[in-house]
Amino acid sequence: IGAHIARWSDAPDLRGNTSNGLCLCLVHDKAFEVGAFTIDSELRIVLGAREPEGSWVRTVLSPALGEQLPPSQVPPSAVSLAKHWSRHGYKIEV
Length: 94
Fold this sequence. Notes:
two-stranded antiparallel sheet, 3 helices, 4 strands, alpha+beta
């Protein structure tokens, strides 16, 4: 799935910008969309605090905690990531 980092409706200025996208499977797309995880400025996986400890989402995502995404030809935009963090209450240092 071509997943938006900053939602289409929240960031009209980023529509069509490929640096506002991630390639995710359907499950990870939905988990990212609801803020169950994000990626930090170093492209490492960060889990959200909203999912209860016993949640299946946490169980599925925990093995990836701290893992870094592989480099891509179009890296995620810092602006898009900041919008995602703000929307979901992440406090990430840049």
